[in-house]
Write a structure and sequence with these properties.
Distance between the termini: 30 Å
Largest sheet: 5 strands, mixed
Structural class: alpha/beta
Shape: globular
Strand order of the largest sheet: 3-2-1-4-5
Mean pLDDT: 94
Order of helices and strands: EEEHEHEHEEEHHHHHHEHEHH
Helix content: 40-55%
CATH superfamily of the largest domain: ATPase, nucleotide binding domain
Strand content: 15-25%
CATH topology of the largest domain: Nucleotidyltransferase, domain 5
Radius of gyration: 20 Å
Number of strands: 10
CATH class of the largest domain: Alpha Beta
Length: 332
């Protein structure tokens, strides 16, 4: 019987688990809330990770009629947001305990790395995440890594959904108190926040405290406004796109990845065609010889590839093609 593997992606908004056969076509996906270790304690992180796997197991049984056999799992791997230092990685690894798999080989890296592995299929290049947060990781032909950005929203996350959502809220407030001309964004943001008057914003921000995910969700209204031609939202997105391009250009300057750099851009913000086009255009303006695209595979598949390697196996062309049919160059 085919060996089984689990790849996991823990973002700021959601956690995903991919179960798949090494030598067969069967696979299933499960989800749970975000498991960023900066936003919850160890018990929360462990529960969230297990919930994602349990949901994937239910999806497996629904698709194929039999239980996902945990005794056949060769390894499992997590790519997570919320850490960069080694001591933080080790703390997260201690939380990464999947029921029934405690003695199975497993490991944790940043989601920047799993996005790089999945997005570039092992080739040198630059991988950028523009989801709830943002970060850039490059790898050269020697396997050396260079990180730019990704230092949490208080000091970084430029070009992310959080950054765009926050700027959308700020723009709406500036419209409301008369500092800039009002556009439809003002009413859209006020409705989304559940407020009617400008002074209501103070209470809304603190009771209960508005979360990072809540702010990031506001990016959807900025995307919608830009697609309708709202000038204020277009300005926000153009500035955000320049920040993403700066991540790529800085990374390539510090550690070149080749004369024709491969740049893949992942994350939920890429679902906006308007923003995606602005980002691709901005990156190409700074790196004219770059080949800019969506990732070959998402981070959760990159984690799956690393699980396969952790078990001492190769990522075969057959496995690539099986997963490509489901995940290849899709915004997921």
């Amino acid at each position: 019987m085919s060996e089984l593997f689990i790849g996991m992606d823990g973002g700021g908004t959601r956690t995903r688990a991919l179960l798949f056969e090494y030598d067969g076509p069967r696979h299933a996906i499960g989800e749970s809330p975000g498991c960023n270790p900066m936003h919850g304690d160890a018990a929360f992180v462990t529960k969230t990770l297990n919930d994602a796997v349990d949901t994937a197991c239910l999806a497996w049984k629904e698709k194929y009629g039999d239980d996902f056999d945990r005794s056949r799992v060769g390894a499992y791997y997590l790519g997570s947001a919320g850490f960069s230092a080694e001591d933080a990685r080790l703390r997260l690894l201690d939380c990464f305990r999947i029921r029934g798999l405690e003695n199975v080989p497993h490991d944790v890296r940043s989601d920047m790395y799993t996005t790089l592995v999945g997005g570039l299929e092992g080739r040198p290049g630059i991988s950028i995440i523009a989801g709830t947060g943002s970060a850039c990781l490059a790898e050269n032909e020697k396997g050396e890594l260079c990180q730019t950005g990704g230092w949490e929203c208080l000091v970084a996350d430029e070009g992310s959904c959080y950054d765009i959502g926050l700027k959308g809220i700020v723009a709406a407030i500036r419209m409301a108190d008369g500092r800039v001309p009002a556009t439809p964004l003002k009413e859209t943001v006020f409705k989304a926040l559940g407020i009617n008057e400008t002074p209501d914003i103070v209470d809304r921000l603190h009771h209960p405290p508005i979360s990072k995910s809540d702010v990031a969700a506001m990016a959807l209204h900025v995307f919608e406004g830009a697609e309708k031609g709202d000038p204020e939202t277009l300005k926000i997105l153009k500035n955000a796109a320049e920040e993403i391009a700066l991540l790529a250009a800085t990374s390539h300057r510090i550690m070149p990845t080749g004369p024709l750099p491969l740049v893949v851009i992942a994350g939920g913000s890429m679902r906006s065609e308007c923003y995606r086009n602005l980002v691709f255009e901005a990156v190409r303006a700074r790196l004219p010889r770059a080949q800019v695209s969506l990732p070959s595979f998402p981070s959760v598949v990159g984690a799956g590839f690393l699980a396969v390697k952790l078990a001492g196996k190769q990522v075969t062309s057959r496995l690539l093609e099986q997963l490509r049919q489901e995940f290849g160059e899709k915004i997921v």
